[in-house]
Amino acid sequence: MKKLIYLSILFVFLGFLNASAQDKIYKTNGEVIEAKVTEVGATEVKYKVFANLNGPVYTLTKQQIIKVVYEGGKVETYEVIQEASLPKAEEKRAQNVFVEFLGQGLLFTANYDTRFSNKRNGIGGRIGIGAIGGDGDTFVSIPVSLNYLLGEGKNLFEIGVGATYASISGNSDSIFSEGGDTVIGTMSFMYRLQPVKSGFSFRGGFTPIFTSEGFIPYYAGLSLGYTF
User: Which residues form the signal peptide (predicted)?
Assistant: First the structure.
């Protein structure tokens, strides 16, 4: 009888030692993992599941962990570390180069567009230049405008207002009166496909224009370019 009692006490003691030899990982979602921590890096913790020490090594970022309680009783807390130690990636301003057909450039222009802060959307501006000549006619345009990009990710909506300098000769039927130099008011209401990082970009939509001679509300434009 005494031997049975001693054996029971021994099994309980061994079970306690076995349970206390494991590490415990407390996750931010409330889960507690019984584990054997194998490595602690600058931003992550690697471990094996205690019930399967011969199994694979798993990885958690410190952002997923509240604390780790080791078998010897040592406690490491990561609630403060996750915000203080991890560097925050600075958002890069969006810049575009593109060619525009019609639109605020009126006929055909090469343009540069940028945001005024380190953002992919928000307020920015564009400037361009275009020149076409033939049969004694010459047309030069320089569009300048401010615009604001609404939305997130790669699908944005552009609202803009600006002015375009235009110089034309030999075309008395144009909306620019009978040639010479003029400044034309422009607006933009356009869909913009702009990559989150870099790559092919597209713009398309309405660009109303107005001069002292008239107003064209349904003038449109199309742009193809590259975002970086």
Answer: 1-21
